[in-house]
Amino acid sequence: MKKLLHFLFHSEVPDINERYRKVTSAFVVIFIIGYSIGFLQLLHLGPYLGPGLGDNVSFQPLITSLQALHSQNPSLWYALIALLCVTVSFRLLVMLAGYFLFEREEGSAYPIKWIIVFFLCNLFSTLTIPLLLFALATLFWVSGLDFNLGWQWIDHNVRLANQLVVNHVPTLINAPAPIAVLMIAIISGFFHYWFHRLGHTQRILWLLFHRPHHMTPALMQSTTMAVFTALPLFFFIILPYNLIFGACTKLFSSEPLYTEVIIFNCLILIPEIFGHHTALYQIASRNQLIRLASFISGGGVYHYMHHSSEPEHCGRSGAVNLVNIGGGPLFIWDIVFGTYCPLSAKTPRAGLSGQPELHMNPIRLTLAGLAQICNELYRNPSWREKWRIVIGSSSYTPTLSTDFAIKSNKIRQEQATPNPATIKNFTFSAPADAIASVAAKPVTGPQS
């Protein structure tokens, strides 16, 4: 057993010969088609509005909304069906282009090894969810509690958040649906901004929750590691996530706005797909319509700057990943808190700071943060250091530390966030200046 565990954690996926390219391409195409169709299950949720009013991840809310809309307003139903088709088809074509144009834009085909490793990372973290639920359920059962309390932990948390929102959060302004959606996006965007920012600035959130999303050295949607399946913190954020975003929804609408949210998400998800494609950065950043749509949505191609491993692109030494954090339309909170960054003329290199060489082992990469925290807590005897290991900033490295994701014999520190002194140097971008930079012609030199 010891040898098996050593093999699983220390072996690496080797380089794959290009003769397997056709098989790999077929796999990528199948994955993209399935991902595009499966994404329809999330259109009633959205990154800002949150599943706080009893929503669930399935096709049923979408089908129910469409059926209700068809009987109430057939004309709008046809328009929404057309918008759904445009959104799904556009995202599918962009994802295909992000893979097949990679060699033309980057000089070589997307490494097969990276596709295998990061796909398996996503698969491993996703399959671990039912395993952890089973372990939690078993623990409850051994403790004399109901087995289903652990097995249905996610559903229980969603229902609890729903009950708390419905029973205790008032509707301050029962605004018309379009205005309500916009207000919800702005207010909940504030919380999304700080959740995301804390995922970079707080050590335990960075290592256990958000760093895997930033590991991929060159981005495609197919190889970008999902955020909310990150181990093991997704178990602990279900309730606060649902509660906060659900409360933001209830403040401006007494009832779920499924149809309106679906329309809103269809629109913002069109430019959003450009945020995780290295090969499409130049195409998207030079297209005025894509730039404008990305800026209005508060993401899109601008989000790619957030994945840069090179802080000099925003003229802020050390500010890796702490730009274009998102949260609400027009990058409102990035502008307010000084983390808005215009597009770079050069395609930024993605990945962790400095693009360190990673262990090409999907199990090791997925568990690297958890292994590092446990290793540090075990090896550092000082209780003060143990405390800082857990609650310290992401720039802190204890006396004894091993990074299990990065190939290095030395202690490495992913500078995922600048020091407070660096943050103070962030220049405030006025909304008018930011909007003007979007409408301007593509730059021909580095921006600051």
Automatic annotation (TrEMBL):
InterPro entries: Fatty_acid_hydroxylase. The keyword Transmembrane helix applies. It comes from Zhongshania aliphaticivorans. Coiled coil: none annotated. The chain crosses the membrane at residues 23-43, 76-102, 114-142, 175-195, 216-241, 261-281. The keyword NADP does not apply. It comes from the Bacteria. GO terms for molecular function: iron ion binding; oxidoreductase activity. This is Fatty acid hydroxylase domain-containing protein. Keywords: Membrane, Transmembrane, Transmembrane helix. Residues 182-339 form the Fatty acid hydroxylase domain. Pfam families: FA_hydroxylase. GO terms for biological process: lipid biosynthetic process.
